[in-house]
Design brief:
It comes from Sulfobacillus benefaciens. Pfam families: BcrAD_BadFG (PF01869). By secondary structure, this protein is of the alpha/beta class. It has twelve helices and ten strands.
């Protein structure tokens, strides 16, 4: 009997799931596999290839149907071609299709396979798929391209606010003391030098993201405003996507995918929901039904045997706790 494989590769982690007949056989987790990150293309594809090899170990690869790799950084055909060239060398036995990670987040997170997904993780991205087949993708390339939000942007804003609080250039905030603690520094002079001379790991700043949510939960006005700004940008992008798809009745799903949506402070989610529903009051805003890697698995099944995809979705939902634990 055939095996199916789905992959979710992002800026902070890689997840691979192997399944058969709607049952999860194996889950493998590894480090980041976004070629736009510090590891670069070769390092990212090395990490991905190792996860793929670990996932198929102990199983007959000749029974593996074409996998679906949902990868952050797969924004243009040139990106996919560059990734494919590396993978052809590293895992020549694998047949696969590469799609952007927004697509698998929507397929796994939605109840119907249609709607709009707003990703808010290390970065942000928004994709909408209409039942008619119309598609609209906005964002995902960074601040210079009109985006704002996600862990990288939020960490930068936390640092900005903390320095201004310390130096008396801005309002006092709990972030001032929290930043030093999270960054392992005794003073802002020490932090300044560590940042200036690049002695801090490039991903270390992501530790400041949960700090912002924690300070907001304690009533810190500066932190809450940072989360509101991010919600405003994401809401604008989702509304623009819905407008471009001409979703006249407004009764569509909005899937909140990515770790930041589940931060301990409710400010990000609450403000986002309020803004989107001012324009589309009938939309169904919810957290994902299944993890993005399950969306990749469902797409692999659908691409190979569309008639089976509904049954697979049902089976995965029946074992939702296992699927969500991926």
């Amino acid at each position: 009997m055939s095996f199916y494989m789905g992959v979710d590769g992002g800026a902070s982690k890689t997840e691979v799931v192997l399944a058969q007949d709607g049952q999860i056989l194996k889950v493998v987790r590894g480090g980041p596999s976004n070629p736009q990150g510090p590891m670069g293309l070769e390092g990212a594809m090395d990490q991905l290839a190792q996860c793929l090899r670990d996932a198929i170990q102990g199983y007959d690869a000749t029974h593996l149907r074409p996998a679906v790799l949902g990868l952050a950084g797969a924004d243009f055909p040139e990106d996919i071609e560059a990734m494919s060239q590396q993978l052809a060398r590293l895992v020549p036995w694998l047949r696969y299709a590469i799609v952007n990670d927004t697509e698998i987040a929507l397929l796994g997170g939605s109840r119907t396979g249609y709607g709009i997904v707003g990703i808010c993780g290390t970065s942000t991205n928004v994709l909408g798929i209409h039942p008619s087949g119309r598609r609209c993708q906005i964002g995902g390339l960074g601040y210079e391209f009109g985006d704002f939000g996600g862990g990288a942007d939020l960490a930068r804003e936390v640092l900005h606010a903390a320095f201004r609080s310390h130096e008396g250039r801005g309002p006092k905030t709990l972030l001032e003391s929290g930043v030093l603690e999270r960054m392992g520094q005794k003073s802002y002079e020490g932090l300044k030098r560590a940042m200036y001379f690049h002695t801090i790991h490039p991903l270390a700043f992501l530790a400041l993201v949960p700090l912002c949510f924690e300070a907001s939960l304690k009533g810190d006005a500066v932190s809450s405003r940072l989360l509101e700004r991010m919600a405003e940008s994401l809401a604008q992008t989702v509304i623009a996507t819905a407008n471009q798809l001409h979703w006249e009745d407004g009764a569509f799903e909005v899937i909140l995918a990515g770790s930041l949506w589940e931060g301990v402070s409710p400010v990000l989610q609450d403000h986002f929901r309020r803004l989107v529903r001012q324009v589309y009051p009938q939309c169904d805003i919810h957290l994902p039904e299944l993890a993005p890697v399950m969306g990749a698995l469902l797409k692999a099944v659908e691409d190979d045997d569309q008639a089976s995809s509904t049954q697979w979705r049902r089976k995965l939902r029946e074992h939702k706790d296992q699927a969500q634990g991926v």
